[in-house]
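Supplementary Note 3. Input sequence used for the single-chain structure prediction.
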Amino acid sequence: MAESVLVALGGTTASSENGVLRALRAALSESFPEFTHHVLDMDLDLELDPATRQYSPRDFDFEDLLSKVSAVLAEPLTVVLLSGRYALFDPVVAALSALKVFVDTDDDTRLISLIRSQSPQTPDALSGLLEDYVHHVRNEDRDYVKPTRARADLIIPHSNDVSLGVAIIVDGLHRCLDNNMATASTVPGTARSFAVEQLDALSGRYFDAA
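The predicted structure, written as discrete structure tokens, is reproduced below.
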């Protein structure tokens, strides 16, 4: 039985990370119809309760995240997509990831994308958004999120066209999952390590697409 694979997809605030995720899910459905595609969105809870945000890793329960990731990885034939700004932050979760991707965005582009995504309708709303960004979000990205870029196997630049980055990810997963399934059918217990070796080779080849 083939083991499942975890792909961690991180990036700074208002990067095109969600666009990469949507395009990747569509590509995986076409390329690997026999696999289940499970998404874990780390930022969803922050959107539900923004008043309690501390703008730091303390906003997340990484032990709970690890438990969820491990439970889904125990299911056969599953590609797990872990998405969120802190997707690459925890070293244990990162170690479980067959492929770690970071969507990189410069400060100006990030602010413009944030304004477009939230679409403030009044001057007060825009002022509040800018104040939140300057005093909290920008500092959080600088201090906690951007450093996780160093853990990435693949760095994708912010872009409206994410097709190249998605194609690279799918190519890597093709090699990983094909070898995973082939190895699992012949040598039980070696599938994950062999698959990770394949993606390690790819990460050296594709390291920075930015």
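The radius of gyration is 18 Å. The chain has eight helices and five strands.
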